[in-house]
Amino acid sequence: MLSGNEAIALGAWEAGVAVGCGYPGTPSTEILEALFEYPDLYCEWSVNEKVALEVGLGAALAGGRALVTMKHVGVNVAADPLFTAAYTGVNAGLVIVTADDPSMHSSQNEQDNRHYAIAAKIPMFEPSDAAEALEFTKAAFEMSEAYDTPVFLRTTTRLSHSKSVVEVADPATVERPRHERGFTKNPAKYVMIPGNARGRRVVVEEHLRALAEVAETHPANRIESLPGRVADTTVTAGAGSTRVGVITSGVPYTYVREAFENAPGGPIAVDILTLGIVHPLPRRMIEEFARTHDTVYVVEELDPVIETQVRSWGIGAPGSGTRLIGKDAFPSIGEFSAEVVRAGLGLGAPAAEGSRVAPALAVPPRPPVLCAGCPHGHVYAALRDKGMVVSGDIGCYSLGVLPPYNAMDTLVDMGASITMAHGMDAVLGHDPARPTIAAVIGDSTFAHSGLTGLLNACWNKRDGLYIVLDNGTTAMTGTQPNPLSGERMGREDAWALSYPYLAKAFGIPDENFAQVDAHDRAAVTATIDELADRRGVRLLAVVGLCVIEAKELSKAGKLEDKREDRRLVHLPLIDVGGPGRG
Fold this sequence. Notes:
Strand order of the largest sheet: 3-2-4-5-7-6-12
Distance between the termini: 52 Å
Largest sheet: 7 strands, mixed
Helix content: 25-40%
Structural class: alpha/beta
Number of strands: 21
């Protein structure tokens, strides 16, 4: 039994991947952690998704297959190199995992990244279980090299974290393909000045046309016929229809099977066209499927990406001979379940837009809170007590918006705490009635994209109190290291960014910089009080250690060394009564 994430890692290793990189983000995080355990490859946590994709692209151009992982919103960060990577091509295979999160189990939005595949003109695979995740990962590398293009592998939360049976080969018998290493200079292909890019734009379209032909016969796209009784009028509106057709992809395929195999009154016969390649779609295959069925359901989570394309081909239009049912029966908001699909097929209770079927057992609500013993909760109490406007960020510290703190006013994306506070300051200016504004950001997020915002604020001479809540790890996603934690992947010791030197490098005056021990509440309060009334950019590092990370370090026998290292890196810590100075 493997999870989807574990199966992707195994598939990448069997495909001979040379480099794995990404930024941790639920539900994608475990892919790299599993891949790291395999021999003969390089893995890293990169500081953000854009950097990871650029590392992966560079590796691929040098002849090493590369796997780049991120959650769905991470593709927004990586979008800049993504679109141009389709132009440069890859040399060795480059596979980009986008882990979407229907129902927003751990995300700030619910975007459907199939749109990115269409917009960036990059093919996309979407497995429906762990076994397909293994096979599609290998197929994605093969397609990437055959058509000289990055390839997306899309997962969703349910696939990433659920486990299913996978036939695993003996590692000793696996012959890992190895692409010829080496970089061949080719500026016309790899240097995207306009004159070169215009030529590559034509190549991209040629690749897409070729890939559309591949999709027509690729084994990832398949039709299966489930046996059962003839569908009645409950599930088929086409008079005289003997079978119902369903077009689906990803995890919803399993729900479709379950709905028809366990229908009231016994299994119902149905033909299922499962699309393992969701971009480009196999048009002739779909048109033939629709032609032979009176009623075709399109069952897809989130946006009507498949349905929109199918309707654009005239399928389901009046006089086409096919009744097409999609988002008029299935919700476009939230994660699907067998119950939601069953209701859409007319085999259960109607599913309202965004509705979820109530569980059999009532689960008591459990509002998320900072961990007991988290050293940083007091910062929110101090900011709230001063009545400050708090611009927040992604990660554990987003919980500052909830009781008992109630001390966060905005949260949008990684690094936006500092830049949005900057924008507020630009508008409010020197109005004497303006509120005091603070930005709060975790250490990993600060490294991800907070540093550029801080540099921008310093350069533009803004006013703002910017607070880094440093707990020594990327806690929310499972305690991965970052450039401020003193470790890299695999708990290998590494240098850590020095706040005092950073402040000096960014031109922050000594009196506007401080770092305090997060456990020293009196010092935290006193430092915020002092810095809040100053002008210009003020940087405060509140240094503690995540309680979960402390337990992991203790198990590894590194807790005391880590504590001492952090003291060395961040000394001098403040004494009660006044802030430390860098």
